[in-house]
Design goal:
Nucleotidyltransferase, domain 5, 4-stranded mixed β-sheet, 21 strands, 7-stranded mixed β-sheet, 478 residues, alpha+beta, globular
Length: 478
């Protein structure tokens, strides 16, 4: 049987990959063609993304792919953006969402547009890193970039533009900005004007599956360009009442709904309704494996190199529920010495300080699992939608310890996999557009039959319920 092959470019906050995904009618086959590290570059006091190097690496990967690819699609992390001049030239490297320029910007915006009104207009979770506060920081600083800017593109659409020439922004990525208005189905230019931002630089918003143009003869198709949007496409769910957890640097835990949830309860819960492929992703952003990634980097700088497998083993051997943290406390947002911050957090909350590598790792993994329960319970309460099982997708689905502890904490079965959900979902949208799948349901049914998944049943639920009571009463949860 002839194999239809597409190229999925997947840029995450830690690494980028160019993947070749083939469909033979029965299975989807993934092959990693090129992988490269992705990291911020600090110049002076500003943390940037090096998009020119990313573009160079993408081209290396594309040229390694054997001839005959049917299309190319790009997905990236959310919220970041770039500005272009009247000739289509990049004005400056995009600033990293973890840069400090957004310090104090939420309060600055709310003086101009009340917090509650921002939510009613957008339905998006309040996070300091959102595009709204990044853009507002340029307004407050009277940045000359805004005077020269003639075009705003999301970070994903920067690469779409360079690949295809299309000056458009893809829907799922746009919704992470917190200035897309789902009531209007467009940018909220009135709100942007009230914070002093230009309103004429925002291009047409196109849905996932749009044909954008071609790169060296290969059609360019916009998948769900926000990486979580692509990952959710590949959830191998064939029944309703499931939740998903896209597990990587961030943990994005949510439900798939027909429309955004913009209610009093959603506002109080600080949840988000981001765009998806033919749906809305009702979810909560949770600080994820960032905590273990930064801890590992700290230990490496101190001369102690640990693999993720070693850290999992150390965590499993450490005492249970000795110390807990809220992974979303702002103290854990910035890069740096994460073990020291965890110890300080535990000291300030009257808990034993984690003293060993295993104790730090166990604190992180147990706290993540308990935060998953907190968010699942919140989503069920706010949406009125029951949850029977949790699908964990992405790189974190390979962490058997965290998957088991997630099942224990939420008291529901967990189905882990596929680990390459983002690239798969990226490819699936391309293949639907190319006519290889009739719809998303058909694609998910094939993924459920062909993807490698592992099921975890809840264990030790009484012990985890006791820990959850402590988790929700010992400190204020973000």
């Amino acid at each position: 049987m002839a194999v239809k092959r597409v190229i999925a470019v997947d840029l995450g906050a830690e690494s980028g990959r160019v993947m070749q995904v083939g469909l033979d009618g029965q299975r989807l086959h993934l092959e990693e063609i090129h992988r490269f590290p992705n990291y911020g570059v600090k110049v002076g006091q500003t943390l940037y993304w090096d998009v020119l190097r990313q573009w160079h690496e993408i081209n290396i990967g594309i040229h390694k792919v054997e001839p005959g690819a049917a299309s190319i699609g790009v997905d990236t992390w959310g919220v970041d953006f770039a500005l272009f001049d009247r000739d289509g030239g990049l004005l400056a490297n995009p600033v990293h969402y973890r840069d400090s320029r957004t310090d104090g910007m939420m309060e600055w915006v709310f003086e101009r547009v009340p917090r509650r009104e921002v939510f009613e207009r957008t339905g998006i979770q309040f996070m300091q890193l959102n595009s709204l506060y990044q853009l507002a920081s340029l307004v407050r600083a009277n940045s000359p970039l805004l005077e020269a800017a003639k075009l705003y593109l999301t970070i994903a659409d920067v690469f779409n533009y360079w690949l295809s020439g299309s000056r458009t922004c893809e829907f799922t990525h746009v919704t992470t900005s917190q200035f897309y208005n789902p009531h209007l189905g467009d940018w909220d230019r009135e709100m942007l004007a009230r914070i002093g931002a230009p309103t004429d630089i925002f291009p047409e918003i196109v849905p996932p599956g749009t044909r954008l143009g071609a790169y060296q003869g290969i059609p360019v198709i916009a998948p769900a360009c926000h990486d979580t949007g692509s990952a959710v496409v590949a959830v191998p769910a064939t029944q309703e009442n499931f939740a998903y957890l896209s597990s990587g640097t961030w943990s994005l835990l949510g439900l798939e709904l027909d429309r955004p949830v913009i209610t009093d309860a959603a506002y109080e819960a600080n949840v988000t309704s981001e765009g998806g492929y033919g749906a809305f992703r009702f979810l909560r952003n949770i600080t994820g494996l960032w905590l273990i990634q930064q801890s590992r980097a700290t230990w490496a700088a101190q001369g102690q190199e640990y693999t993720f497998e070693q850290l999992t083993a150390e965590a499993q051997a450490a005492p249970a529920f000795r110390s807990l943290i809220d992974p979303d406390n702002p103290v854990f947002t910035r890069p740096g010495d994460m073990p020291a911050r965890i110890r300080e957090y535990c000291r300030q909350t009257g808990q034993p300080e984690p003293e060993t590598v295993g104790q730090v790792a166990r604190t992180i993994y147990e706290s993540l699992a308990l935060k998953y329960r907190y968010v699942v319970d919140m989503l069920v309460r706010v949406s009125g939608r029951p949850v029977d099982r949790l699908h964990i997708i992405g790189g974190g689905s390979k962490n058997t310890l965290l998957c088991q502890w997630a099942a224990n904490a939420i008291g529901r079965p967990v189905i882990a996999g596929p680990s390459e959900a983002t690239a798969l979902g990226n490819a699936i949208v391309q293949l639907i557009t190319l006519g290889e799948f009739s719809d998303l349901a058909q694609a998910r049914e094939l993924v459920s039959r062909s993807a490698e998944t592992v099921a975890y049943e809840p264990r030790d639920t009484a012990q985890w319920a006791e820990a959850y009571e402590r988790f929700t009463t010992s400190f204020t949860l973000a």
